[in-house]
Amino acid sequence: MKILLVRVSSLGDVLHNLPMVADLLRHDPSATIDWVVEEGYVSLVRLNPHVRKIIPWALRRWRKGLGKPETRAEIKAFFRSLREEEYDYVFDTQGLLKTGVIMGAARTRKGGKKVGLANGSEGSGYEGISRIFHTDSIPLDPRTHAVARGRLVAGAALGYAVDSAPDFGLPAPQAAQRPAFLPAEDYAVFFHGTARAAKKWADANWIALGHALAPMPVLLPWGSEQELKDAQALAARIPNARVLPKLSMMDAVTLAQHAALAVGVDTGLTHIAAAFVRPTVEIYCDSPKWKTEGNWSERIVNLGDLGAPPSSDDVIAAARRLLGQG
C-alpha cells in the first residue's frame, strides 16, 4: 500500500501529524509513506525514519517570485515529482484550499481514495472548499485534539481503532550528538517567545521560575529582534541564564531534544519538547489547552488555559516535580 500525507505547515501542525506514520505502519507494516511539506519543515519530517519520500512545497517562497522563470520551473518540478507515484490513499489533514489542490494533483491507483476533513476544529483556519478534492470526507468533533485529528481520519478511512498513545517516531537524544552551543551539564530551556503578545507569560513569572531553578543553567532562545530583546532582559535578571545565538530550526529542535527541563508557552518548540517526551511544562495563556496539550506522558504538565494564565508558583511546583525535587 502506498500512502501520501499532505500536511505542509506550520511547525506545530506538522509535528502533530507525525503519529499518523506509526499508526499506518502498525495497520500495514509493508506500507510506504510519502509526505508533502513546506520546505522549511523537511528536516523535521526527516527525523522520522519511516517516511520514505519527502516532497518539498515552497509556496511561501514561490509567492515572492511568481513572475520569475526559475520559480515557475520549480513549481512544475514540484508537480512532476508529486505525480511520479500512484497512491492507494492520499490524506489531507490540513483542510485548506492549497492542500486540497496538492491532493487534487496527486495520482491514485484505480480505486484509490483521497481522504480529508469534513469539518475544522474550533478556531481553525479550515476551508470547506477543500472538500471538492476528496473522495471521502471524515467528520470529527470540533474539539478534537490536534494530534488525534490526522490519526482519526486515517483510522476511519482504513478501518482501524486509534487507541494507543501517539508515537512521533522521533529519535532519542544521543550524548555524542550534543552540539557545542549546549552546556555539558543539565539545563532548562525557556521557550518564552511567541508571535502573539496575548500568548506571552509575564516576565516576572519567568524571572521567578529562573530563580527557583538556580543554579541550573537556563537557556533562552529567540527568533526575532523583539524576542532577542526580551531574552536579554530576562537573562539580566535570572541567575545563570544565557541568551543563545540565533538558531536554525533544527538547532532549536536539538535544544528541545536534550533539555533536562523545557518550559514554554503554546508554540511549536514547546510541543517538540513534549513530543520528545522531555520533562516539559506547557503554559497556556491565550489559547485553549484542549487543542494541543501534551497528554501522552506524565513527564508533560499542562497549566493554564484560554484567558487563565498559570501562576509562577504553579509552574515552579510542576518544574520541581518533573526534576524530582518535590
Write a brief structural summary.
The chain has helices at 11-17, 19-27, 42-46, 59-62, 69-82, 97-105, 146-158, 203-213, 225-235, 249-258, 268-275, 289-292, 312-322, and strands spanning 2-6, 32-38, 53-57, 86-92, 107-117, 136-138, 188-191, 218-220, 241-243, 261-265, 280-284, 300-304.
Low-confidence sequence ranges: none
Fraction in helix: 25-40%
Secondary-structure element pattern, one letter each:
EHHEHEHHEHEEHEHEHEHEHEHEH
On the 0-100 scale, what is the average pLDDT?
Answer: 96
Distance between the termini: 49 Å
Cα Rg:
21 Å
Major beta-sheet overview: 6 strands, parallel
Question: What does this protein look like?
Answer:
- This protein is an alpha/beta fold.
- It has 13 helices and twelve strands.
- It has a six-stranded parallel beta sheet with strand order 3-2-1-4-5-6. Strands 9-8-7-10-11-12 form a six-stranded parallel beta sheet, sandwiched between helices.
- It is globular.
Can you lay out the helices and strands and say which pair or pack?
Layout: E1 2-6, H1 11-17, H2 19-27, E2 32-38, H3 42-46, E3 53-57, H4 59-62, H5 69-82, E4 86-92, H6 97-105, E5 107-117, E6 136-138, H7 146-158, E7 188-191, H8 203-213, E8 218-220, H9 225-235, E9 241-243, H10 249-258, E10 261-265, H11 268-275, E11 280-284, H12 289-292, E12 300-304, H13 312-322
Parallel strand pairs: 1-2, 1-4, 2-3, 4-5, 5-6, 7-8, 7-10, 8-9, 10-11, 11-12
